[in-house]
Here is the input.
Amino acid sequence: MTKRPNKTPGISRRSLLGAGAAAVTSAAAGAAALPASSIGGWDLTTDVLVAGSGAAGMCAALEAAAAGSRVMVIESLGQAGGSSAMSGGVIYAGGGTALQKSHKIEDSVVEMYRFLKDVSGAGVSLPKVQLYCEESVAHFDWLLQQGVPYGGGFTAAKGLPEGEESLYYSGTELAWPARDLARPAPRGHVPGVRGMNGGRKLMEALFARGEAAGIRVRTRTSGQHLVTESDGRVVGMLVEDGAGRRQRIRAQRGVVLACGGFIHNREMLELYAPELAAASVPWGNAGDQGQGINMGISAGAAALRMHEGFAIAPIYPPEHTLAGLVINQVGQRFVAEDAYHGVLGHHIAYHQSGKAWLITDQFSTFGYKQDNFPMVAQANSVGDLADQLRLPRGSLQNTVAYFNRFAARGEDPLFRKSNAFLRPLQAPPFQAWDLSVDKAFFPVHTFGGLHTSVDGEVISSFGEPIPGLYAAGRNTAGLPTAPYIASGLSLGDATFFGRRAGRAAAGVST
Here is the structure.
């Protein structure tokens, strides 16, 4: 790696507009960027300032420190770790990682790329996908070097492992049509700890490395405004502590925005992602208020795919419920029931007006008391069940009859459900479980954010990098798109591109 040479600033649309844009005051425009000439000096100085202490922020900080920079991380809450610490800790990695090889699992960069390219939603950045796939093995090795505890176990069961297994199929790889587009391989890499504590273990390892590297983490310190020079270069940030005191922090090399998404900013959610605003469970750290995105926009950044996010309807485990049928308001199937629960949730939230039901019989019912999905109807015939749900006359009966006719022959012409979950639905009592976004346990999180290069440079609305400003994680529109096709893509994106943003902010060419 080499140091980037100093460049003589040229005339660009950013520099021409910079002076006028920077003159907007905070009183007039909320989180508007402030001109350096207006703040009256600096209280603190660092080389790289990172806003946000989740996986993206800490990986950026670690790489900036490794490049010789003084690094300060600020966190708005009293507890560091962000949404990453609340997560399952899954990293989507492949192409032949050490863990895959230990189980003699064949995978390649090409197959991983095909899966992410062909199964992801429209708008995914193919240059980012390609780079991520090509360097996935090296990135996983880096995580091992940071002390993230990956065990040796593999499980073929659907859903996040709650034992000590570290490798599983974390997405829709085995479901149709994904399995026909790319050779399936397990790529969900999760710290091998019992329970759903992988995210906490991941962050503990990153914080330990950060402490050893001399990275300073300041909690209860929230970013309020970016500070820019007259040419539009970002040179620091105005912050506020828990007592309301403001400080001006100079960043001599760069600022990295890694403050998470905006799932807990109701105004932004209703403005940009109304489909997610209707869901019952806004999933994420309380600090996911969209502040980093808004600060980036205030400096001229473009924002992409702000309506997108993950929407999850976790009808498994237990896996036998996947033998049931998921129907919409007119009694028809619309997705393969064995698809990844992010794909199922996406279809419900974005394409079915937020309403759906899971229809089970005595062999596919949950079999235990659960309150994730309320049972709203039960009957000894499909027709009586349809009447209770007030579905169009005959629609559910036709759906079940068509499905049963082919399932008895081991076929599903509509959605090609896997044979493991394919059998006729014909053993009463029949039950209907409400999967609607406002009735079920329906976690959602945002994916839209700032436009960035593969090196984390924040891109302006004119398509030019904003000097001195970088971003990573859910502050950005990165690898994850809607529908969310695999657990671990968000954290994988945050850690991998967080590292690149940190190196770029430190002035190191990648």
